[in-house]
Specification:
The chain is mainly β and 347 residues long. It is built from one helix and 28 strands. The N and C termini lie close together (6 Å).
Length: 347
């Protein structure tokens, strides 16, 4: 099996923000400079992403496709754009959005799209228009980093400075450091097959069991010797029940529910090169059409590799094997797994 690297020589800049697989099979990338790229059909290179109606007037932070197939773009100043059937709708402070600086998206059980902003709280876009939540009406932070959904339909909202907000349909319930969260900055949320809620912070991982955490709470930190780095950037569960943990400087870790252990000693095949010192950025994993190929990325370059290929994960390496089951569990989250190597290698 061969790992293929994609960088400037194949149409991508070195720093990427996100990778998204669209329903039509296109693999798309959001670059750090705010541009959108897509893999050219039948070729191993990326070209400008063509979206009917999109005029590229604003730089993008993120990209999301909802359950109805509409594409949403998070921009740096222009708000959120919805692209569907050749039509473009803009949501900004002029028509009710909390801010023009959009960071993430999510979706509730009713198919309404939620928009997390950098400085204007959280907005929900539905048939009745836009409704915005801020500190004035229940939300506990103005900066929303991630939006997830549990099996009961509650929204799990990770904030930049005040822990987690849980939206239960009519109110926000705060879960912060006073409640046992290891750090107020929440970067990632996930729910495993056992219904446990995982939260990745700058102080390690917190796991809540049972409804509203009544089944108990557990922390996993570097101080316990369980993690190589407390700065957690993504959480994803695969089909086998492993929870993959992406860190800022400590590489990729894997939690095994059978042994209840976290390990970085992942299956070894070939030689793993030394990772660069830049912190990784995390984006959605992307499957290429019907092929069993997974795209994973970092700053500075993404890699494509068949999911059966074993590997050793370097100091900043991360990976997630997507599947229909995992996609259902991860509905509403924008942060996936990226991986970086300095060169190509074969397993």
């Amino acid at each position: 099996m061969q790992a293929l690297s994609f960088a400037e020589d194949k149409g991508l800049q070195k720093v990427l923000l996100n990778i998204v697989s669209l329903a039509d099979g296109r693999v798309c990338v959001v670059e750090d400079r705010g541009t959108l790229r897509a893999m050219e059909p039948g070729k191993d290179r990326f070209v400008d992403l063509e979206l009917p109606g999109w005029q590229e007037l604003f730089s993008c932070n993120n990209m999301y496709q909802d359950s109805h197939g509409a594409i949403w773009l998070a921009t740096r100043g222009g708000g959120a754009f919805k692209l569907e059937a050749g039509k473009v709708l803009q949501y900004s402070p002029a028509n009710g959005l909390g801010s023009g600086a959009v960071y993430c998206f999510g979706e509730d059980n009713d198919g309404q799209v939620w928009v997390g902003t950098i400085d204007g709280g959280l907005s929900v876009i539905g048939k009745e228009g836009v409704r915005t939540f801020s500190k004035a009406n229940g939300l506990h932070s103005t900066f929303v980093r991630c939006i997830g959904r549990d099996r009961e339909g509650n929204l799990l909202i990770g904030t930049n400075d005040n822990g987690l907000d849980i939206f239960k349909g009519d109110r926000f319930v705060s879960f912060g450091t006073d409640d046992g969260l290891t750090d107020p900055q929440v970067w990632a949320v996930a729910e495993d097959d056992n219904g446990r809620a995982w939260f990745g912070t700058n102080g390690g991982i917190v796991i809540l069991s049972g409804r509203d955490g009544r089944g108990g709470m557990r922390t996993i930190t570097a101080q316990q010797g369980a993690l190589t780095d407390n700065f957690i950037r993504c959480l994803r569960e695969d089909d086998k029940g492993y929870m993959w943990i992406g860190t800022d400087h400590g590489g990729l870790l894997r939690y095994d529910p059978r042994t209840d252990r976290v390990t970085g000693d992942i299956e070894l095949s070939g030689t793993w090169p030394k990772a660069r010192s830049q912190p990784s950025r995390w984006g959605n994993p992307a499957r290429s059409g019907g092929r069993q190929t997974v795209f994973v990325a970092t700053s500075p370059a993404p890699e494509r590799r068949p999911p059966s290929s074993p590997r050793r994960m370097g100091s900043q390496a991360t990976m997630w094997w997507p599947s229909s089951a995992t996609r259902r569990a991860a509905s509403g989250w924008e942060h996936g797994s990226w991986h970086h190597t300095d060169r190509q290698w074969s397993g």
